[in-house]
Amino acid sequence: MFRNAYVLLLLTTLFWGGNAIAGKLAVGHITPMLLTTLRWAMALAIMVAIGLPQLRRDWPVVRPNLLFLFALGTAGFTLFNAALYSALTFTTAINVSIEQAGMPMFIFLANFLLYRMGVSLGQIVGFTISVVGVALTAAHGDLTRLAQLDVNFGDALMLAAILLYAGYTVALRYKPAIHWKSVMLALSAAALVSSLPFAAWEIATDRAIWPDMRGWVIVAYTAILPSIAAQAFYIRGVELIGANRASLFINLVPIFGTLLSIVILGEDFHLYHAVALAMVLGGIWLAEHSGRKRAAAQ
């Protein structure tokens, strides 16, 4: 069971890492809020095509949970991305990468405060090692650069984004027991509806860039892999091994994003990339090994 979770979570973070590359490639071809709305519109169209019969079967369970599912989709899919995109207009990608690596800590804390779910020493050590690996990547191999980082309004927005996704992850335990197609259809609809005001603001303020051919390719990629596949895989991963253990894999997102930048954008590969990857994977392995032993003992 846990091996299936590992495969799903690795693919999740790979697709999310690719989402960062898509965001870089989108500059000048489609604006962020319009991209968010169009990706969820396309994702919803796909889910309607493949999942509507299943939703009809699950409707007696879905209907009383519509408000909760709408809140999940709004917080985890729309508001998180809106806060993340906005944060990047005020602060650096380095700050955002390091701050995002702290997300598992907030999930650990929320699970402890709400459900008295403890963590082992191995999980704490593994989490710390993986965060240092992310910081090493973000600082381009020189951790002394971190002392020069400025904290500003963008960092506060990123903190809000982290809290939103941490809350979304913890709240997944209350997701109704329905087929993944029904879950993704409901959450995609919520994400589309809640993203419309952001796209409307972008259009009303003449900031919008409507997609050209590259823009539409990016919309298609983000709709199919980061939106549908990755979110469905993440939800399933949380179901299989729990929020605390699954959230640690999020620290692979900046690592995969960096490696994909090297492959796709032609950026240089350095020794610190290999060291950071080894640290993040080693930290996740240590934390997961300890977490699995803890779960087996309970």
TrEMBL record:
Domain of life from the UniProt record: Bacteria
Species annotation: Neoaquamicrobium microcysteis
Residue ranges of the TM segments: 38-55, 67-88, 94-114, 121-141, 153-171, 183-201, 213-234, 246-265, 271-287
Keywords: Cell membrane, Membrane, Transmembrane, Transmembrane helix
Keyword Membrane appears in the UniProt entry: yes
GO CC list: plasma membrane
SUPFAM superfamilies: Multidrug resistance efflux transporter EmrE
Protein name: DMT family transporter
Record's bilayer topology term: Multi-pass membrane protein
Claim: Transmembrane helix is one of the keywords in the record: yes
